[in-house]
Design brief:
Layout: H1 4-29, E1 34-37, H2 45-58, H3 65-74, E2 78-79, E3 83-87, E4 94-98, H4 101-104, H5 121-153, H6 160-191, E5 199-202, H7 204-242
Antiparallel strand pairs: 1-2, 1-5, 2-3, 3-4
Length: about 240
């Protein structure tokens, strides 16, 4: 028999876990992690031609990091974990392209404007981790949900401790995703002198991912508290009956 306090904690923890999963899933699937605001383009013919050339290059599947980064900066682009989008020149429409799997694991260079330079291991692994960590986070929550369902079927609250630990790890992975993304973007801006070309800001997708981390950690705290408190109470009741 589970005490009402523990049952309430489990219900609240499950709701928080569900909200965190929804927030993180939406964040991963949208491109509004980072937003660039470009200055108004001049009416010069050469400038318009240059912008259209950037737009055409941006659409390619095997486009280099230097090329799509310049397009994002100069064409009011938005960047996400899986998507990159730009505002098409002389139009109000938006063109979006997804990162291919090879691009998610491609090698990054110390100077993106020159691919003949040495590999930048820090940027390379930050880029890869910001793709892997959210998937790991969602996978841990899904595994925790399976364990929770099995615990309900077995009418046991003990496995809830492992569910809490899985949610704690998931929260850390979600937070690490945001940190890796921001660190990678900052290193990219420092590698090439692009800071003065446009203004930039954090997007709502990044904030959703950031909010999902404390929600997962709060759910973890409730699950762990319910499991440990129930176990202590059960131990005291058993000792009392034996005495």
């Amino acid at each position: 028999m589970v005490d009402n306090r523990y049952a309430t904690a489990l219900v609240i923890g499950s709701v928080l876990s569900l909200l965190a999963s929804v927030y993180l899933s939406v964040a991963v699937g949208t491109q509004h992690w980072y937003q660039y605001r470009s200055p108004p383009a001049s009416n010069d013919f050469m400038n318009s031609t240059d912008l259209r050339s950037l737009s055409n290059t941006f659409i390619g599947d095997e486009v280099a990091e230097r090329d799509y980064s310049q397009a994002l900066i100069r064409l009011n682009g938005t960047l996400g974990l899986w998507w990159r989008c730009i505002l098409v020149p002389d139009s109000t429409s938006t063109e979006c392209m997804s990162f291919t799997l090879p691009q998610q694991f491609e090698t990054k260079y110390k100077h993106p404007c020159n691919s003949s330079t040495d590999e930048d291991l820090l940027r390379t692994y930050l880029w890869r981790c910001r793709f892997v960590f959210p998937l790991v986070s969602l996978g841990l929550v899904f595994l925790g949900a399976l364990i929770g369902v099995c615990a309900c079927l077995c009418r046991s609250i003990t496995p809830t401790l492992f569910v809490g630990l899985l949610h704690l790890l998931a929260g850390i992975c979600s937070l690490a995703t945001v940190c890796c993304f921001l660190a990678g973007i900052d290193l990219l801006h420092r590698s090439c002198d692009w800071q003065d070309l446009s203004d930039y800001s954090l997007g709502w997708s990044l904030y959703l991912a950031l909010v999902s981390s404390p929600l997962q950690m709060m759910a973890a705290a409730l699950f762990i508290w319910a499991a440990r408190s129930h176990r202590k109470n059960y131990t005291r009741m058993t000792a009392y009956r034996v005495a």
